[in-house]
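Readers outside the structure-tokenisation community will struggle with the description of the input data as it stands. What matters is that the chain and its backbone geometry are given together, residue for residue. For illustration, here is how one protein appears when written out as sequence plus structure tokens:

…
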Amino acid sequence: MALYVLLGFSAGLPFYMFSTVLSVRLADHGVALAIIGFFAWVQLLPTFKFLWAPLLDRYDVPGFARFFGKRRGWILLSQLGIFTSMLAMALFHSDASLPLTALLAVLLAFWTTTLEVAADAWRIELAPTPGEQGPIAASNLWGYRTAMVAAGSGALLFADAAGSVAPMLRSIGIAPGWQASYLLIAAGAAVPLPILALLPRQPGCGGERAVALATGLAASAAILLAFAAATAAIGWLLLSAAAASGINSKTDVTTPVLVIAMAPFVIMALLTPWIRKLAPDSGPRSSAAIGPYIDFFWRYGFMAIAVLAFVSVYRMGDVLALVLSKPMILSLGYTKTQIGWADGAVALIASIVGVGLGGWMVTRWRWGVTLTAGAIFAAIGNFGFVWLAHQPVNQNTLYLATAADQFGNGMAGAVFVVYLSMLCNPRYPGAQYAFLSGFAFMLSRLLAGAGGQLVERLDAAGYNGFDLFFLGSGVVSLAALLFLPLLARAQPRADDRA
């Protein structure tokens, strides 16, 4: 449990830095709301982690795996990627080149997601039942949400207060404001590295710690550089193609992006009758690349479609609120310091209580009850932003709205993590959890990317765009409950392989 608090902290610390904090940073630099919305699509990377998750189940990180094993080797590589990506975001803190900012945000999101894939696979292997998963999932989320709060509040407070220590920062070559904030969080992200490096040898592994670390660091440097170069090349090609096609901030690209993202899942659903007839030793079921995903549809059949529809809606309200909640609060007249304090102790305490209660519920109550409670409290958190918008600017009011949001998110998140874990075949813990958790947030992150455009259009039509946006996101959270009677009948087939 202590280890998973640490791993949750490692994954949660960078998440806000390419999502919520980045949206505040872009708004601070005068970037249009529509463009800030597009940056939310960086969060689509976790949706597509199923594309590279099988690699983490199949291959080792050179050097590290010799002493630390497969899972810890990937975790160490991912943490190095997180640290270097955040250093680069601190170096180019002015956002003078938005394509460069996007590249660095994508790199940070990729390595954060890879860390989650490795940690989730290890968690499912260590705790195969709901009774065991509840405490470990809660521990992981405690660490994750503590880190998110530390990153969110710490970065905002430091960005606002850095002026008071500006002479000292400049004397050591650090620009006050956002550069100082990202350097602070990068330093925090590096803390778990020496702790993990000092843990005992993974059972079944040989080799010496010093040799494994030296060769692992050399291999990691080569991997990080190669991946950054490949990502930059692909990004340049995509942006060039978009510019040649006349796509700009006013273009409605949500529909084509949604179609492209949904295509693999729609194809898999259409092939379900064929998948159900596959023999145990057939090529598709034995494939390292697609076997884990074929297996999910083979076990659940057409009920897999209902399960995927439910998971894609359950956390949608939280994701939609995540991108635009801070720009809305800034627009009400709150300062970054006030938001930082609200995202500090208030959010942390509320989140810890919500996560703990959710983790306890899954060990005591039926899924229908726990999933319902999580959805209701998540919706209340979204409705709280509408209430906040119609109150005078007051720190205590902001504290109350933030607490409601974080409590609901924490409870729903803990319940949801264990629910997804129990859907996985223990034969493919990393790949199937990556598939389910990625799909769960795909639609919501696509819609979040268009959230800025939607609010602007509603405002132009004479409506209060933020009010309607947060009302709608709360209603969507409640809509997930309509699937529960159907999901009660979703029982998997027994695996027919040894």
